[in-house]
Sequence to fold (602 residues):
Amino acid sequence: MSSSLLPLTSPFTSTNTQLAFKARTNQTQGFRVSCNSAHDDQADKKLILPESQKLVVPSVDRRNLLVGLGGLYTAANLPGAMAAPITAPDITSICKDSKDGIRNIDTALRTTKCCPPSLGKTVKPFKFPTEKTVRKRWPAHAGTKKQVDDYRRAIKAMRDLPDDHPHSFVSQAKIHCAYCNGGYTQVDSGTGFPDINIQIHNSWLFFPFHRWYLYFYERILGKLIKEPEFALPFWKWDEPAGMPIAEMFLPESPNPLYDELRDPDHIQKRLIDLDYAGTDKDIPDQQQIECNLATVYRDLVRNGGDTLSFFGGEYVAGDSPVAGTDPSVGSVESGSHTAVHRWVGKRGTPNSEDMGNFYSAGYDPVFYIHHANVDRMWKLWKDLRLPGHVDPKEDDWLNASYVFYDENEDLVRVYNKDCVDVRRLKYDFIENSDGPFPWRKSRPPQRRKSAQVASTADVKTVEKTKFPVRLDKIVKVSVKRPAVNRSEEDKEKNNEVLLIKGIKYDSGKFVKFDVFVNDKLKEGEITTPCDPEYAGGFAQIPHNAMKSMFMTSSARFGLNELLDDTNTEGDEYATVTLVPRIGCEDLTVGEIKIELVPIPKA
Fold:
């Protein structure tokens, strides 16, 4: 394979644009926050105990209390201090403008008033569909004439509804805005945290929330055109034939599937880049296809080897999306998912509208077919039946819940535990591939030993590196491994995982950095994202906290295969290289380490 793609120092990297799971130990939830003392600068950090839980406690910072008061008080000795799942409130009665992550509000091209219309209804419990038919979602590039015509007709019918109708195109688009850009708080989560927003990205809520979102969206479209078997298309960007954006989304008049806020250069080129970093790569299409397949393999296999690496870190009641917590972002979410969002969104708009910002993404019909394939990634990940490919089992994940309008205009509360099996939700995906999926054969080839140098011993160790380290230039450190020359039996029990923790970044802009491990190529040889040394990337779409634009997250990268493929399983230390790509001028990293993570059993 050619090695002209995105080297460590490359013409694609601008000089001015340069996830470990969070251990939620002894999380406390038995308190309500006082936000009333405007004259006290620390008022938003003070806690008031309910009468039933009065204790003699010092004045404390809420964020410290939520992680166990720094060891002073724990869940064992604080009454009622136990974890609780994220619980969305009644979305029609408790909602506010969604301004998080919108850097240029005055020039925003979409509204930040994302609250849904209220029909005066109470929230009902969800009931599983009882129809015998199963909706078959279809590859967008290979739809039949009837499938495409029905889809166009359904989107047009949705666009024709008044904006204040809960099924309208605008109301459906606002769902993503409200849940992702600060429309709802955790007032009903645990004992209530009315000053902390709900954020369904960058944690283990990412997959289930979007599955429910599309479930109702699909059924609403079907009801609008009276087609009980209507199913959404999905953008099958994990297969070469499906990588170009489907023709039905191209500009034509009239076309209800077209959105003018797409990058015109990319729509013309059409072949997606699943590792997009804000700059187009001048490479042959075949090389782009090979790199895309390697990205999917990395997202689902190499970096998705355990539950939290795939889903993202734990996120429960009382956790702030901004300060005090750093749940890791899942492999697909930070990888191919984010790349597609940024690749489609129109460059040069105030906030990267539409697809390039969470508040506006739902206004592009491509958003839904993209997330239909992201939803399919969850199903494929489980269908691989590899060790560690199991859904979260924690009650805080199973009982996390959201509220949506269903196809009957009723408000319905749904839980993560009820969406783990698509068969119970009466939909599935049409797979038109002959033989194994192409990405299953896209593990990067093993590095030739003749292309490698003997050692990288001159690289500074993490112990001698001062953290946090700013990523305004390439950072290279040496990290001690927990074990070397691990047996196959041990690898079946534990994944070796690179943890990059305390990633603090400006969440009002697109950021991306790449991670390479044991890059030992001789001078003149260039490492690219298609090569075995590429562990993956950390990428974020603008989305959070206008009052404090800096957000904290973490990243996880699987090393079992990478060490074998780079001939470095016997090395005591791993050389980790972080390469800023875009938006990293003020990004800092708090910790880099390698751990053995037990592989969860089904």
Q: What stands out?
A: Confidence is low (pLDDT under 50) at residues 1-6, 9-81, 544-548. The radius of gyration is 24 Å. The first helix runs from residue 62 to 66. The first strand starts at residue 32 and ends at 33.
